[in-house]
Amino acid sequence: MCIFVKRMCKFLNISTLKLKMRVIRNRLLAERRNWRQDHPHGFVARPIKAKDGTLDLTTWECGIPGPVGSPWEGGLYRLHMQFREDFPESPPKCVFVPPIFHPNVFPSGTVCLSILDAKKAWRPTMTVKDILLGIQKLLAEPNDKDPAQAEPYRLYTHDMKAYECAVKQMAKKFDASVVHFD
After folding, report:
1. pTM of the model
2. pLDDT tens digit string along 16-58?
3. Residues belonging to the active site
């Protein structure tokens, strides 16, 4: 009896995992389809290609244009979006590659934003479009209550002119007319 129960439990765990993976795959395929049909001008978001040439739906390469009228304007900022195995219950991890100079971006490039935190504002109904627009808004409107990087935070809160100068230099470095996604 005990062996039968163990086998059934193992079978159920494998079946549950397969079902979960199918749900995630279907959701990410829908995200891709929706993005291709309707996305904001200047943004890029697409799954990366695996070494075997297939699409890796769990890792997306994205580009976020700097908000118009902000020191970020003119730049196109690369970001990797990594969907976890419990997506959409938990948000994807979003990392700027290379890391950017921003109060709410860790030195590793990881974005610190409430909608990317399952314990804060994340909702399973959020889309890739919602996430990228939220990050774009964060570029121009940092959250000084939740800093992730000391130097940008210090400049943002104590020397806005120096902060804006540093951001404008970065926008030139990541000029949208030069940054390409192949």
Report:
1. 0.89
2. 767 778 889 999 999 999 999 999 999 999 999 999 999 999 9
3. 112
Boundaries of domain holding 168: 33-173
Q: What is the DSSP string of 121-166?
A: T--TT--HHHHHHHHHHHHHS--TTS---HHHHHHHHH-HHHHHHH
In a domain, 8, yes or no: no
- Number of structural domains, the chain? 1
Answer whether residue 178 is part of any domain.
no
Determine the Cα–Cα distance for residues 136 and 45; give it in Å rounded to an integer: 13
Domain with residue 163: its CATH number is: 3.10.110.10
Answer whether residue 68 is part of any domain: yes
Q: Where are the beta strands (DSSP E) in the chain?
A: 44-49, 55-65, 76-82, 93-96
CA-to-CA distance for 116 and 92, rounded, in angstroms? 7
